[in-house]
Amino acid sequence: MKAKQLMAAAAGTAMALTLAACGGGGAGDTDTSDSAAPGGDTGESYRIGVAMPTQTSERWIADGDAVQSQLEELGYEVDLQFGNDDINTQSQQIDQMITNGADLLIIAAIDGTALASQLQTAADNGIQVISYDRLIRDSANVDFYVTFDNYTVGVQQATSLLVGLGLLNEDGSEGDATGPFNIELFAGSPDDNNAGFFFNGAMSVLQPLIDDGTLVVTSGQTDFDTVAILRWQQETAQKRMEDLLTSTYSSGEEVDGVLSPYDGLSRGIITALSNAGYPDTISDGFPIVTGQDAEIASVKLIADDVQFSTIFKDTRKLAAQAVTAADAFLAGEEPEANDTETYENGVKVVPSYLLESDIVYAGNIQSLLVDSGYWTEAEVASGVAE
């Protein structure tokens, strides 16, 4: 099995599947031709509240900064708050935004089911709400949703796992490997609506191969509730991987690949595997580990032949789309939606705008991340955002 892995890992890594997920970090450059915020002079008399979930992930810091800077370029007053992964804190912040006279809210929810009261108050005050990246559920008072094609992100993650194992080539053609391969599955936080889309997209690719024996989930843990990691915590993922290695792989079996839906989880999984004595690099037999968000620490791991892949979701473009929608609402118009069927939040189908994403392998870090200005060569080399 390892020999086939190594053949796949050594193959060229130039292709990225381009389709529409939890977004990467960012080099802080928001002035790109594809992602610049729309012009306009409607913003001077409006105040916009922007609620982001946490500052513990570099991607959310980048999202907050990008949304704020692009809104301010249009002349809007911006109240940006981070909820520190605490539901009550975020709820209180949104309450305060409304009290302070917000004309519109952009919310990336910590728990997409926990804001019904705040959204009702917003509606009672004529305040429109844009759900940002994470769908707010169980409320009719969500006016628009901006995100990536989250199901396709899951498809991309599973596809990159198969490329790493050698079952597929990067161009989508059949690879030389045949399996069987031992894999384990991880999913995101169960209170994040996107996590289910990621997992279902990935399983649409992996389940047929599990059914025919090409892939073997050695632990037998394949349902979402079992493999989900609350709040996307790296430490929780590391502990689960350590437990799997102890309970399932203590008799000579080896892990060949791990489906991970987020770079923070990936780094926890990688730490557990490294501590268990797996080789240092993929070329030497380290398991294939996927990811998402193109966080700079994981981009360096990919460049260093440790993590195999991540999904790049350009947060500058996501921020720009949120700003476009906000600008339309405050001008008395309806923002453009390119999906009016997929995102049912338990009460209504929320009009949505879905963006595209890309698979990052070692061979296309330069073209996807550096040439676009998302990260610099120095940041990739150091693994630290400057």
Automatic annotation (TrEMBL):
Q: Does the keyword Signal apply?
A: yes
Q: What Gene3D superfamilies does the database record attribute to this sequence?
A: 3.40.50.2300
Alphabetized PANTHER family for the sequence: D-XYLOSE-BINDING PERIPLASMIC PROTEIN (PTHR30036)
Q: Which NCBIfam families match?
A: ChvE (NF040907)
Top-level lineage group: Bacteria
Question: Pfam families annotated for this entry?
Answer: Peripla_BP_4 (PF13407)
Question: Which key words are in the record?
Answer: Signal
The residue range of the signal peptide is 1-20
Domain Periplasmic binding protein per the UniProt entry, residue ranges: 48-334
Which InterPro entries would you find in this protein's record? Bact_Solute-Bind_Prot2, ChvE-like, Peripla_BP_I, SBP_2_dom
Q: What is this protein called?
A: Sugar ABC transporter substrate-binding protein
Q: Where in the cell is it found?
A: Cell envelope
Where are the residues of the annotated region Disordered?
A: 27-46
